[in-house]
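Task: complex structure prediction.
Instruction: return structure tokens for all chains below.
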Amino acid sequence: MTGYTPELRELIKKVEATRPQRVERARKGEHFPALTMEERKQWLNKYHPDFKSEERSKVRVGPNKDAVFPDEVRVLLESRSRLDPSGIDLSKADYSTDVLVIGAGGAGTAAALTAEQAGCKVLVATKLRHGDANTVMAEGGIQGADQEGDSPYYHYLDVMGGGHFTNQPDLASALTHDAPLILYWLESLGVLFDKLPDGRMKVRHGGGTCRKRMHSAGDMTGAEIMRVLMDEARNRTEGIKVLEFSPAVELLTDKSGHVVGAVLYNLETKEYYIIRAKAVIMATGGFGRLHIQGFATTNHYGATADGIVMAYRAGVELQDLESTQYHPTGVVYPEQNVGLLITEKVRGLGAQLTNVDGSEFCFPLEPRDVESSCIIRECLDSGKAVTTPTGRVGVWLDSPMIDMLHGEGTVRKELPAKHIQFKRYDIDISKFPMIVYPTLHYQNGGLKINEWGETAVPGLYSAGEVSGGVHGKNRLMGNSLLDVLVFGRRSAMRAVEYAKGLKGDLVPTLNHVKAFHEELKKAGIMDEACVGPMLIPDYSPDHVKKRQWGVATLRE
Amino acid sequence: MADEKNKLKPLATGDRTIPPEDAKMIPVFIMGREYTVPETLTVMKAVEYAGYTYVRGCGCRGGICGACATFYRFIGDYKLRAGLACQTIVEPNMIIVQLPFFPANRPGYDLENLGGDPHEALRSLYPEVFKCVGCGTCTRTCPMDIDVMDYIALMKRGDLKGAAYKSFDCVLCGLCASRCPAQISQFTAAMFVRRLYGKTGLPRAAHLEKRVEEVKGGKYEKVMKELVAKDMEEVKKLYVDREREPDLAEPGKWLPEDKKYL
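Output:
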């Protein structure tokens, strides 16, 4: 069962019928007209998931009370603890450590290495395996101003412009200022960067950059960085202990509300562990697996916003969390590639988007958020969607145009990874179009931090996608890998300082959870509250759920 | 949580599978027990369709993290096959098991103090690499189509650069090691060799080292502080006016007209 189904092959004929004409026009430089600024605004308001008023609502408790978030986020922010805060003996700790890192992706591992280097004992708690994170999925590269014609100054301007100037300036400054240090650190850890024979880094442009500063390691830069960091952590087991399959489910605070540890939950033995830590670094990643408004996602299985939920209860304010990055062209078919990214380069090389009739419906290189809106409109409003055998909708991305425009073999040469990814399922994208739909790509917002990854709650630090403000409401390619490493290291430096300066015994409580539950009761929503954090997404189909007698809406 | 809403939509959403009415159903055997699932699903989604919830054995769901190493056979076929659950399509009468974990040999080391001879370092950490019997099972098992046996041969010969790049696509799933009659943990040895080559074989970037000295010396602190303090309208203007490095500029040669901020 490979390639396109007979039904889809029938539909492809419609795209093929209009293709020669479209290529002819493209050769003359004629394109579907781009939207005017006014139209852009209109379409964004009407179709971009961020601007939809339904499926978004006000959160009724916590530091961001009355702010509007997507329902999936709001429901979790209003969730109650898995724990009964008054029924637990917190007097004995199962582990005591200087620094507890929650999450073991790029940010968590960078933080652990940095804290260990500074002489601290580090415990890393992670929900899945060490290295299970969006970090491994970053293909494109990592930015850093290390070339002669570049400097952090220009990198900063690019970051701010990309974020529509909504970024928190001190965070953007920290990000770009530290970038060369991060690249150097990675190089010295043995990351196989793409280099020229004399050792000079190979660099490219990315969307929205004014300098060529995209560094890469093949087309799996994130995976290479992650496995190197993980390998190094495994060389330092004296100072870094990693507990896999043991997510944190609640922070612990002392009587002043300072964070002094966490409660972990062993997903396999169902045991809870009490951790005392002088400082805690939150590095749990993003929220793609909440499938905001039902969107497929490019994100890792573990991206369920756990850190946001825990920190929110402890009093950390959120910023920009209402804003989500959707990549316009995520794969919809074949099923095994659903949600995966089709790089912008495909459209850059001339591939157009067409609807089920083979007609163009938008300019193919609108900004990401606008392009996504156009596709959503065509599918849900205009009713011109292509429907896949598994019931998904999308539009055609007419990749065969690329070879027609630039010569036979261009697809294979310029898009080798994508070509192979589809070839595996008997689809030659240089001959047949792909079916795409916007896919949930990045959590733009998150916990509010300062340039050292400090939250407003003493003892609690935050790094990576779980934090907000670095990229404002839109992130540029190549800055997320940089983000996790810069703020992983920065937060660890401050956490170490804080831990070393801490006097007296740690007396952990769950007072903040008690108070949060009180707030839920007061708001009259304790009974409807689901249990959070979510930990594991639920993909069991309805026919199975119906037979799971007695299992509540959330597992456990 | 989102279930209520999803029910209202006729479309498949998120990663949950909603097969069309007329989907062809096929029998598969998950750890030997029969389930009926729609064809065209991946092994991973078929397992979820059957009602399992993954804790182990599921990661990026996109073929890069190595969490879902899977063995399978077809009824009536002697051949043992391997793949990643998120990248393999179910077929009728497939008998499936996933590896939740596989123990590998991974001696610790200090990358900064490995002595002079990289090949010797490899020999002392991974002597078993040199006992490869050349059966090729690893290569046939690799879900990333890496010629594992060949990179092991390159390691034996001391071609660490060759081994580093030949093994580059490795996702550390452990399938190779699970089938090796010489009990080699190929993927951990390859990890070591890639780092070793990255550290000692690849020439360092001189321009990066220079920039790091500048950053550490505080060269950009003042200018960044000024930028952060600037009015956003002014930043917008600087953004709009910035000069763009040409796509085809020669590496390290291009400089902007305004050199004040370099």
